[in-house]
Amino acid sequence: MRGFSYLKKALHIRSSCSRLLVVSCISSGGLLVYAENVDNNEKIVERSRLDSKKRKKIVVLGTGWAGTSFLKDMDISSYDVEVVSPRNYFAFTPLLPSVTCGTVEARSVVEPVRNIIKKRNGEIQFWEAECLKIDPENHQIICRSTVENLVGENDFSLEYDHLVVAVGAQVNTFNTPGVVEHCHFLKEVEDAQKIRRTVIDCFEKAVLPGLSDEERRTNLHFVIVGGGPTGVEFAAELHDFVHEDLVKLYPSVKDLVKITVIQSGDHILNTFDERISCFAETKFQRDGIEVLTGCRVVRVSEHSVNMKVKSTGEYVVVPHGMVVWSTGVGTRPFVRDFMEEIGQGKRWILATDEWLRVKGCPNVYAIGDCTTVDQRKIMEDISTIFEAADMDRSGTLTIEEFQDVLEDIIIRYPQVELYLKSNHLFQVTELFKDSEGNEREEVDIEGFKLALSHVDSQMKSLPATAQVAAQQGSYLAGCFNRWEQCNANPEGPRLFGSAGRHAFRPFTYRHLGQFAPLGGSKAAAELPGDWVSMGRSTQWLWYSVYASKQVSWRTRILVVWDWTRRYIFGRDSSRI
């Protein structure tokens, strides 16, 4: 009777459905009824199609720090988002030097992109392919699959309403002969794995019978070109790998190993505080790592490096077993072609405005290492700022009138605040002092120009770091999330020279500090507020920060386990 009762209810449901499926099941005397409302489903599908047509499509190129940060913070309920990248994972690049020596395993620092977008309810589509061309006129990109030797077309195109270019950069060789053919790079996970195999090859070859001591020394001479954070950290990791692990396995050649860092500048880590540079150089000297400053590499061959000593003009030949090239970043070819097409062909890197919009192409955005923010100079708008501040049209500007627009000026031109801080000017009234140091109650246009004439000297390009890229990705995602809201109620600074305000506040980089692991369980850190920390305690701070910055609990646990495993068992020297 219970089954007939269920059937009666199901038949009652039939009156509002266009189709009814009844499936009986004899077990337990039950009756399972499945009803599908075809008319309503068709309406839902049709409504979904209409919503999809209304939504703007955002195409993201790249799955590095900038692209992944954008995807994680993006509210995709109002957009159709598609991602194109030749690699289907995100790599925690600050730990790549650790991967080169087995301190951390390669799979511990990567997270599959599909795992990341899966957490967004599958509303983001990913295509494993490389971008060949950006066509801004037709709002589309041309791509090619990285999977070869399988059936189907490799080339395809995607249309977009907004394009986010986050492809990072490639290694800058400065057109030095032999670099591409004979040097290792350290930009990708595959680079780190290749370096790890080569290091083991150098030791295996050096212990073979029949080699002279000179040949062994050459094979075990590791040269790092570039004394920036990546080059210094790799040199430190390699030193620890050799002296903590490899000398126990290859005792016959332990006294023949040599590590050399070649730096064109006067100091290594020259982007850090001077105290950190000196500490690093002193520690490397104590560890036996040779640091050659003021030297420029002019040619690399299979077994030697030719360099020029700037101070004497002398050319020196340095034999090597392996060379790692870490000297900066360059623009990718398809980005270079895009720059030529939009009138940026004479620039060395893709330029955006303060809102990360590509100059000359307003619906294309660029974030990360592939771009630089072209901050507008305040002297270019000094006359319009003066006119906007001079409310009574007197031809002079009082302190009160300037203070009324000061907040908008600082937001629009962040170099003003940097100038005040660097010159220890705690009050804006100090800008209006005359040559004798007396404060003036008002200034004319010439005095206003003179007061701000040195402000633009504080303009600096942002470094090509993961920290900058991640902040740019988060900022741009926030702009898209508040697109309609901010266009209706602008939150940015006022438009000098016209009415209204900018829809968004411009991007502002907030420096959170930087680390430089120096080996031997020691590290150096430059922290906000001009704080500098060096030593073993800083190494533990480095461990905690880098563990917390992992993109998932899976990679976080794997990285911590790798550190623990290395401490207990040492590094693995297998050539795999």
Automatic annotation (TrEMBL):
SUPFAM superfamilies: EF-hand (SSF47473), FAD/NAD(P)-binding domain (SSF51905)
Molecular function (Gene Ontology), one example: calcium ion binding
Gene Ontology CC, one term: mitochondrial inner membrane
InterPro entries (UniProt xref): EF-hand-dom_pair, EF_Hand_1_Ca_BS, EF_hand_dom, FAD/NAD-bd_sf, FAD/NAD-binding_dom, NDH-2, NDH2-like_C
Alphabetical list of PROSITE patterns matching this protein: EF_HAND_1, EF_HAND_2
Any single Pfam family the record assigns to this protein: Pyr_redox_2
Cofactor: FAD
Keyword terms of this UniProt record: Calcium, FAD, Flavoprotein, Membrane, Mitochondrion, Mitochondrion inner membrane, NAD, Oxidoreductase, Peroxisome, Transit peptide
Residue ranges annotated for the EF-hand domain, each copy included: 377-412
Compartments it resides in: Mitochondrion inner membrane; Peroxisome
Main location per the UniProt record: mitochondrion
Catalysed reaction, written as an equation: a quinone + NADH + H(+) = a quinol + NAD(+); a ubiquinone + NADH + H(+) = a ubiquinol + NAD(+)
Enzyme Commission no: 1.6.5.9
Source taxon at top rank: Eukaryota
Membrane topology: Peripheral membrane protein
Family, per entry: Belongs to the NADH dehydrogenase family.
Entry protein name: NADH:ubiquinone reductase (non-electrogenic)
Gene source species: Solanum commersonii (Commerson's wild potato)
